[in-house]
Design a protein that fits this description.
Blueprint: H1 2-32, E1 37-40, H2 45-56, E2 61-65, H3 83-91, E3 96-100, H4 106-113, E4 118-121, H5 148-165, E5 171-175, H6 185-193, H7 197-209, E6 215-221, E7 223-224, E8 234-238, E9 248-249, H8 251-260, E10 270-277, H9 287-290, H10 305-342
Parallel strand pairs: 1-2, 1-4, 2-3, 4-5, 5-6, 6-10, 7-9
Antiparallel strand pairs: 8-10
The protein binds NADP nicotinamide-adenine-dinucleotide phosphate (NAP).
The site of NADP nicotinamide-adenine-dinucleotide phosphate has 27 residues, from helix 2 and strand 7.
Signal peptide: 1-29
Domain NAD(P)-binding: 41-262
Keywords: Membrane, Signal, Transmembrane, Transmembrane helix
Length: 343
């Protein structure tokens, strides 16, 4: 009995010690490590949450904006607010500085990063204006500044160069998505209809993993922005680019992960999958999860571009075949009906 009681006592003591260590690790670092953060993708749904949270934690933010702050619009952070209204709102916050530029323009990224300790690269290529254009590669110029090759890949190169030439900045947090399965239906659809956005995001990730002189944290979140996060769902992380079932996650939750990971040295040089899982399988906050992640140790494929291209082309061919068969069935039905009426 005594031994059992002693064991229970020492177990709860160990738990208290662990909890205290975790709290200290988080709060000590919060107060010391990061003095200014550069944000890319400022007015995006993820970026705006990151700027708001940095501001709440009194961390100055320098944000890249693709347009000037328009003083004539009403500042707003509402869900339906325009990019200009969100920019005006964020620019009005204390300790938020706006830099006009574009991730595909190296000079503006240099200006953004200079004097910051970390970069949150929360940008993503815009959705193509028409759904059918990406199906015809010859209609798409991959040197256009809105093309995923430029935004998700060349943009990351610019960030790496800017970090290398800065004095203080050594950490890049990049948000991408699951993309190591070219033949998954999600990858095929996103690549097929989004100008290979997933493929170029993976190539951008690899640029970061191949740098030995700087620290990165790659965050691959679930589906953001869907309101239906399951009731009682909790947070989960898998390091080393491991596997977790895709689930809806909130922009504000992923924004907090991108900021919190800056305070965990063990999260440097890591590729993290971030999903929601049923209660009992995860944690309510990221602190205990981040405390356990490790830097990447497995071999990631150096490039997956050809695999993604083949899968997307196959997807497009199947789609065309489907429409061709559908159209010919439709034509023969119409012909039969017309023949019936003409008798
Ligand atoms: N939404 C999801 O379900 C999901 C899931 C997994 C991963 N992700 C990734 O997470 C990231 C953010 O998602 P989100 O929902 O916040 O997307 P979002 O609302 O579309 O925001 C994208 C942001 O990227 C900026 N951007 C685009 N091209 C740029 C360029 N050339 N230079 C600088 N900034 C540029 C946009 O700027 P403007 O405001 O000026 O247009 C916008 O602020 C994306 O990279 C996406 O790939 C999203």
């Amino acid at each position: 009995f005594h031994t059992k009681r002693n064991m229970r006592k020492s177990l709860s003591f160990a738990r208290i010690l662990t909890a205290t260590a975790l709290i200290l690790q988080g709060s000590l670092a919060m107060s010391t490590a990061v003095k200014k953060v550069a944000v890319i993708g400022t007015t995006g749904r993820l970026g705006r949450q990151a700027v708001l949270q940095l501001n709440e934690n009194n961390v100055p933010a320098r944000c890249l904006l693709r347009h000037e702050v328009d003083k004539s619009v009403k500042p707003s952070i509402d869900k339906d607010a325009s990019s200009a209204e969100v920019a005006a709102y964020l620019a009005s916050l204390p300790n938020v500085e706006m830099i006009k530029g574009d991730v595909t323009d190296e000079a503006s990224v240099m200006e953004l990063v200079d004097g910051c300790d970390a970069v949150l690269a929360l940008h993503g290529a815009p959705r193509p204006s028409s759904f059918w254009k990406p199906l015809f590669p010859f209609l798409n110029d991959d040197s256009d500044t809105s093309h995923p090759r430029m935004v998700n890949y060349e943009g990351v190169k610019n960030i790496i160069n800017a970090v290398r030439s800065s004095k203080n900045c050594k950490r890049i947090v990049r948000v991408t998505g699951k993309g190591e399965e070219p033949w998954s239906i999600f990858s095929i659809l996103i690549n097929m209809l989004g100008n290979m956005a997933k493929a170029w995001n993976y190539e951008g990730e690899e640029l970061l993993r191949q740098c030995t002189d700087l620290d990165y944290t790659i965050v691959r979140p679930g589906v953001m922005g869907t309101p239906n996060v399951a009731e009682g769902a909790v947070l989960a992380l898998k390091d080393n680019g491991g596997d977790l079932k895709v689930s809806p996650v909130k922009h504000e939750t992923i924004a907090s992960l991108c900021i919190e990971c800056l305070y965990y040295p063990n999260a440097a040089r890591s590729t993290l999958i971030a999903m929601n899982v049923p209660d009992g399988e995860g944690e309510k906050t990221y602190a205990p999860l981040l405390a356990k992640v490790s830097p990447d140790s497995r071999e990631f494929p150096a490039s997956m571009l050809e695999g993604h291209r083949t899968a997307a082309r196959t997807g497009a061919a199947v789609l065309f075949a489907f429409f061709a068969v559908g159209a010919s069935v439709f034509v023969s039905i119409v012909q039969s009906v017309l023949a019936l009426f003409s008798k």
